Amino acid sequence: MRTSISRGLAVLAVAFGTVLVGSGTANAAISDSAAVSACGSSYYVQRKATIGWGQTATVFLLYSASTKKNCVVTMKHPDMGVVYGYPTELGAGVQAEGGNWIIDRDDYKYYAGPVYLYAPGKCVRFSAFYEESGAGGTHDINYTSPWGNCG
């Protein structure tokens, strides 16, 4: 009995350590379903990137086969402390090859976007902006993906 309890505790300790150490951060990831809720039920996640010094926001590129539109949304992580639910500068953008950026950037409590783009037959890239504050001051975090999702 004692051996079973010890093994069970060891497994839990290893699993918990993997969550904290293996991810490099204690912040929980945003689920894909949160991004789908922001863009619409016909959308699915194609690519995403977690950004910020503390990995405190995630930008998603989604696509809907029925509308043939791309959607981008940048979401704050809910466990990021006082900044979650407090307006800070946040942005989401999308661009098709040869086209202009479509950007939503303002002070938001939870997420920026959704930003939509109809770009059949073209490669797209997406971007995010996040103003992160911490003990070291305020930092502007910018992210731009490589071109992809062509067609």
Which tags fit this structure?
151 residues, alpha+beta, Immunoglobulin-like, 4-stranded antiparallel β-sheet, 45% strand
Give a short summary of the structure.
With 151 residues, the protein is α+β, with helices and mostly antiparallel strands.
Describe the structure.
This protein has 151 residues and is an alpha+beta fold. The protein has one domain: Immunoglobulin-like, CATH 2.60.40. Helix content is 19%, strand content 45%. It has two helices and eight strands. The strands form two sheets. Strands 1-2-3-6 form a four-stranded antiparallel beta sheet. The protein has a four-stranded antiparallel beta sheet with strand order 5-4-7-8, with no helix packed on it. The longest helix has 21 residues. The N terminus is likely disordered.
Summarize the main sheet: 4 strands, antiparallel
Shape: globular
Question: What would you call the structural class?
Answer: alpha+beta
Span from first to last CA? Answer: 59 Å
Number of alpha- plus pi-helical segments: 2
Number of domains: 1
Going across the biggest sheet, name each strand in turn: 1-2-3-6
> How many strands appear in the DSSP assignment?
8
- The portion of residues forming beta strands comes to over 45%
Uncertain runs are 1-27
